[in-house]
Amino acid sequence: MDVDGLNAGYASDLLEDYLENPDAVPSEWRHLFESGESDLVATHPGLVRLLQTLEARGNGQTDAAPAPAEPAAPPAEAAEEVRDDLLGGVAAAMALVKAQRMHGHLAAHLDPLGSEPPGDPALEPERLVPKLTPELQARIPTSVLRLYVPGETLAEALPRLQETYSGTSAYEIEHISDHEKRVWLRQAIESGRYRTPLSAGEKKELLAQLSRVEAFEQYLRRAFLGQKQFSIEGLDVLVPMLDETIKLAAEAGAHEVVMGMAHRGRLNVLAHTLGLGYDSIIREFEGERTIEAVVATEEGGTGDVKYHLGAEGTRATAAGDITVTLAANPSHLEAVAPVVEGRARAEQTDRSTRMGLHDPSVALPVLIHGDASFPGQGGVAETLNLAGLDGYSVGGTLHLIANNQVGFTTDPMEGRSTRYSSDLAKGFDIPIIHVNADDPEAAISAVRLALAFRRRFESDVVVDIVGYRRHGHNEQDEAAYTQPLMATQIAEHPTVRELFAQQLAAEGFVTQDEAGSMVKEVTDELRRAHEALKATLGAPRAGGEERIPASTADEVVTAVPAGQLRGLNEELLRVPEGFEVHPKLKGQLERRLRTIEDGGIDWGQAEALAFAALLVEGIPIRLTGQDTERGTFSHRHAVLHDAYTGETYAPLQHLDDATASMEIYNSPLSEYACLGFEYGYSVAASEALVLWEAQFGDFVNGAQIVIDQFIVAGMAKWREMTRLTLLLPHGYEGNGPEHSSARLERFLQLAAQENIRVANPSTSGQYFHLVRRQALDPVGRPLVIMTPKGLLRLKQASSTLAELADGAFAPVIDDPAAARDEVTRLVICSGKLYYDVVGHEERPKARSVAVARLEQLYPFPVEAYARLIASYPSLREIVWAQEEPQNMGAWRTIRHRLEEPRVPLRYVGRSWRASPSEGYPTAHLVEQDRIVRTALSG
Ligand SMILES: Cc1ncc(C[n+]2csc(CCOP(=O)(O)OP(=O)(O)O)c2C)c(N)n1
Question: To test ligand 1's pocket by mutation, which of 229, 305, 308, 333 has the most ligand atoms within 8 angstroms of CB?
Answer without folding.
Answer: 333
